[in-house]
Design goal:
This protein is mostly helical. The chain has 13 helices and two strands, in the order H-H-H-H-H-H-H-H-H-H-H-E-E-H-H.
Length: 310
Amino acid sequence: MNFAAFEPIVIFTLLNVVMALGLYITALSGQLSMATAAIAGVGGYTSAVLTVKFAWPFLPAVVVAALAGALVGTCLALITLKMRDFILKLTTLAFGEALAVLAFNFDYIGGANSFTGIGLKTTIWTALLATAIALYVAWRFDASRLGLASRAVRDDPIAASAMGISIAFMRAITFAVGGALVAMGGAIQGHYMLVISPHDLGFFVSLNFIIFLLFGGLQTLWGPVFGAVLLTALPEMLRFTNEYRLILYGLIIVLVVLLRPDGLLTRTPTGRAVRILGYTLVPARPVASRASELKARPLPAYLLRRQAAE
């Protein structure tokens, strides 16, 4: 079997995983951004300009692109801080379309003719390294105090604020980290496709990443990974159906949304056992009652001396 025929599919799958993880971190604080493709385009344009017009090396250009994505994400978080639900999503959509229109009319980055002349820098090892970095960052963030605070803001902003969690800070952090990962993926993808078009910044490209997230599951880290891998490879797996493959692709997504509205993978509550096919991967952790814990705990020495004196 000739692996070269599958190499583009593998690279695009890995890069979709990177950007889906960025969207997952962004959504941790309760804001589902519809400007993912626009932030990826910011990273792609930034790295392309640096490597083509200023002859920067590839790695520093990707790092600067990630910082640019974090800056754009932070600005978007601050703009939408007081917004919720439909208005918030509509604002992120308009933000992404505004960036697409700006790229369309900016001749320095190619304008309507797209940005061309980008050197081929991305290999499968580059995509693997980017995926490993994105997985590590998302895993560390998800299990950290910031990740727990972000989920608290997502579940109940009023209760989180009452407990001393800054909603503005958490949303800015999630948008910055998520935007950095998305922009990194966009920069690496731009050096594989060798051309960046303003159309790549539009809503319908962002919709693909939203589908990855909702299909795989919004509540767990592995949900967007599973969704990105499966839905990127699925059209290729359905090629034997010829002209019906996209119909089947859409039908599978609709069935998953109807039958598993929380996604294929969901988060197991803390303390419950994790089982797959009848096998226990993580045993249950029984939680003792608070009263029994206090009763079993020995008294401090000064209290024992006071009891003896009485």
